[in-house]
Design goal:
Elements (H helix, E strand, L loop, with lengths): L2 H34 L3 H28 L11 H9 L3 H18 L5 H40 L4 H27 L9 H28 L4 H18 L8 H15 L12 H25 L6 H29 L7 H15 L6 H10 L2 H14 L4
Length: 396
């Protein structure tokens, strides 16, 4: 692997960890400003979302560590210290620092070993998945809450601007990082290029903005019923995830934790969890969220509920419609012309995969993320089966 690529991966890891710490600091700063201004309920909601997402994140991290093969994390502290770190809500930060240390170790080697490279990828994949969970369990609800407060009050404070900008960038970055991480699980799948990454980043940002805006509008209009609205849709989405027969976690109890988290993600954005063609399921999910968003907007228009930011909404809602259709157009452009599979050199990639297949089974492999990647890219299973057949026929 070129040293420039190793350096770039290390820089991205530093940026991701820094962004997590900045986002945490912004949330605590925002909560403190609410307390100082006497808005204790808003401060309590910010801290409650932060605490709930942190607990769920530590549970995922701990369950994964307990389910990893024995001897894989030989350089880690003992189980008691790891349990204490997760109990103190420091497990995810520890993983980020461990990933940075492993990346630095690989970069400093003149010729990195296959095991060190594979172990660095293993850690990076878990961090990417945890970052995605943290984004939709904490950052996205926090952004919705801030927008609802702005719509209710009719003004935006300077610290709220900081929270809004950081949240939007963090959400889109987490989605892009997760998609890139999925492709590293499958050697037969080429990585995203710069142009494809930019378009993928933009269409996720443009499709998320209208959804978050209408949920924030509902929260501002009916603050007493927003929890009922979320729970109702969340139960429907949880049932849908259960019907797809997910098998991601090591036991049934933690699997329900995963399904509940996925249902929360689906409340805001698309997330594939099952094998097979995704076009139909993605279309159903998009239509479901679009219908719910339209009902919220129609409710506001028909009830003529007064908000201090009524004039602001007359600008934001048309912008949301434009962003939705622009994001949908960019999504179509991405999957029709910019998707890496459209430019894949099959012979070269298959050759690389075949030459390394005899080594991969001896190296650390993140089976959790590999399974998700195979679900996300249905053709991956066929390519993997073809590779196994070639190996059995003596091509190696």
């Amino acid at each position: 692997m070129p040293r420039a690529t190793l350096l770039w991966d290390l820089v991205l890891g530093v940026l991701g960890t820094t962004a997590f710490l900045i986002d945490l600091g912004v949330d605590l700063w925002t909560a403190s400003r609410y307390v100082l201004s006497g808005r204790y309920l808003w401060a309590a909601l910010v801290l409650a979302l932060l605490g709930l997402s942190s607990v769920v994140l530590q549970l995922f991290s701990w369950v994964w560590l307990r389910g990893d093969p024995d001897g894989l994390h030989a350089s880690q502290p003992s189980g008691r210290w790891l349990a204490l770190l997760h109990l103190l809500q420091l497990g995810y930060l520890y993983r980020c620092l461990q990933g940075l240390w492993q990346g630095l170790l690989v970069f400093r080697q003149e010729v990195p070993s296959e095991f060190d490279l594979a172990y660095a990828d293993f850690l990076a994949l878990d961090i990417s998945m945890l970052r995605l969970f943290e984004t939709f369990l904490e950052t996205t609800p926090q952004l919705t809450l801030v927008l609802a407060i702005v719509l209710q009050s009719g003004r935006v404070e300077y610290y709220q601007w900081v929270a809004i900008v950081m949240s939007f960038l963090g959400i889109s970055w987490a989605l892009l990082d997760y998609h890139r991480a999925l492709r590293t699980c499958l050697p037969a799948k080429p990585l995203l290029g710069l142009g494809s990454s930019v378009i993928y980043f933009l269409w996720n940002l443009l499709l998320l903005w209208p959804r978050i805006l209408v949920v924030a509008l509902f929260s501002a209009l009916f603050p007493r019923y927003v929890a009922l609205h979320f729970v109702g849709l969340w139960l429907v989405l949880l049932f849908w995830v259960w019907l797809q027969g997910t098998d991601f976690m090591p036991d049934s109890c933690s699997e329900w934790l995963y399904r509940a988290t996925v249902a929360t993600i689906l409340y805001f954005s698309w997330f594939n969890v099952a094998d097979g063609r995704t076009r139909g399921r993605a279309s159903i999910h998009l239509a479901f969220l679009l219908g719910d968003s339209i009902l919220i907007v129609v409710t506001w228009l028909t009830h003529s509920i007064w908000l201090p930011s009524g004039n602001l909404l007359q600008i934001l809602l048309p912008m949301g419609v434009v962003c939705f259709f622009l994001g949908l157009a960019l999504r179509l452009v991405y999957y029709c012309w910019l998707h890496p599979s459209c430019h894949r050199g099959s012979d070269q990639v298959d050759g690389i995969l075949g030459s390394r297949s005899c080594q991969l089974h001896q190296l650390p492999q993140n089976k959790r993320m590999t399974k998700l990647a195979q679900n996300f890219f249905p053709k991956a299973r066929g390519e993997a089966a073809l590779t196994r057949n070639r190996d059995m026929n003596g091509v190696l």
